[in-house]
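Quick review question:
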């Protein structure tokens, strides 16, 4: 057990009022703040926890910690070892412009309110298995937090939000992780303008409602760009997901069967999914497990190897008020030049459905029997299975985030 010392054990310089400065140098041990104060670290000031416990614990309201470097805290995830641990009584804490590098959690905020985590740089320990590292930022039972402009890499999840409501995430960059942003049982949260790169899932949205997910980017993530699992009454708009490919989940995937899906919607209802761009991925969008009654319009599906995967009992119409989505493989025409295709876009057929239900049939993909099946369903559309229909496909993408190309991928 690490022995925790009061912060007064450090050679602090009083700058007046509640402002204190920690001078440059290496300061070893585990420290605790038990009164309101503003702690500013000079350049070169380092708190080194020497591999055990929390580097810094905040137990009082109104504390600010700014410009500090925190290193080598503990790796016991059961004990929630963290670089900065914000306790329940530490409402209104501000953690700003700090540098954190270690194996456990970066910043853990535990059951408090109105915390601001701004401009911190958090790096995990690549010598530890991904699932054994702590999350970069972890919010548990937190309300009113602002998590803005942080950079997290090589931890387990970048930002994990558990049973925390009314929080705001904006402008964070999250790289080389399991999940970039991970929501569990969290409502009324906003996720604005964040970037995920090279994660196993960019935005893992789970068991939550009334999320506002706007203007984010998922770049070169594996398995899933945006994953919606039991999400209801949420808004997913103006996001860009690109270059999602299938990859090894490392045995810690919450939903098996990652196939490079730009957007995966699992048992999610009554959501608005508009003006997003899903491009250059193995699969543009996959809906399953009763994911119906969502508004899906104004999106651009560009250059995905397969645009849509959907198996259900009734057809879904993917247009709203005469406006559908843009599909880069649409072969229809626009005779009256109103920007809308004159024939509906129907991405899947009975052969697709057969392949999804019975993957072993893929062995017959190039056989005459498969060609006959496709000819029959074209000649006799009465046998068409329920699926996706976009009655008013867009002839040009109208999303807010243009890409470098609107071309189909080279086979």
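Suggested answer, residue by residue:
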């Amino acid at each position: 057990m690490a022995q925790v010392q009061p912060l007064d054990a450090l050679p602090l310089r009083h700058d007046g009022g509640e402002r204190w400065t920690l001078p440059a140098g290496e300061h070893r041990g585990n420290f605790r703040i038990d009164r309101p104060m503003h702690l500013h670290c000079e350049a070169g000031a380092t708190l080194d926890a020497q591999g055990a416990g929390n580097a810094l614990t905040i137990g009082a309201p109104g504390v600010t910690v700014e410009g500090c470097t925190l290193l080598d805290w503990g790796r016991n995830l059961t004990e929630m070892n963290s670089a900065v641990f914000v306790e329940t009584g530490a409402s209104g804490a501000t953690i700003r412009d700090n540098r954190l590098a270690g194996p456990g959690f970066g910043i853990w905020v535990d059951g408090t309110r109105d915390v601001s985590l701004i401009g911190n740089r958090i790096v995990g320990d690549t010598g530890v298995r991904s699932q054994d590292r702590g999350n970069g930022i972890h919010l548990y039972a937190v309300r009113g937090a602002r998590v803005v402009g942080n950079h997290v890499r090589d931890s387990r999840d970048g930002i994990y939000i558990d049973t925390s409501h009314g929080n705001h995430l904006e402008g964070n960059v999250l790289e080389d992780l399991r999940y970039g942003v991970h929501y569990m049982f969290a409502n009324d949260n906003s996720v604005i303008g964040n970037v995920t790169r090279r994660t196993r899932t960019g935005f893992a949205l789970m068991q939550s409602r009334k999320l506002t997910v706007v203007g984010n980017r998922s770049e070169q993530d594996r398995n899933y760009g945006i994953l919606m699992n039991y999400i209801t009454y949420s808004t997913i708009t103006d996001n860009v997901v690109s270059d999602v490919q299938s990859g090894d989940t490392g045995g810690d995937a919450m939903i098996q069967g990652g196939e490079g899906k730009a957007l995966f919607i699992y048992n999610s209802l009554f959501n608005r999914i508009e003006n997003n761009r899903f491009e250059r991925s193995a699969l543009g969008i996959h809906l399953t497990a009763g994911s119906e009654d969502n508004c899906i319009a104004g999106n651009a599906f560009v250059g995905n190897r397969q645009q849509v995967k959907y198996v259900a009992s009734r057809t879904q119409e993917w247009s709203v008020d005469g406006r559908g989505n843009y599909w880069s493989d649409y072969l229809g025409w626009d005779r009256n030049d109103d920007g809308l295709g004159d024939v509906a876009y129907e991405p899947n057929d009975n052969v697709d459905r057969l392949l999804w239900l019975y993957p072993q049939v893929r062995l017959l993909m190039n056989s005459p029997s498969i060609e006959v099946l496709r000819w029959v369903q074209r000649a006799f559309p009465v046998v068409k299975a329920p699926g996706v229909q976009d009655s008013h496909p867009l002839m040009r993408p109208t999303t807010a985030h243009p890409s470098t190309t609107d071309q189909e991928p080279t086979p």
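Why it works: The chain is about 5% helix and 35% strand. Confidence is low (pLDDT under 50) at residues 404-411.
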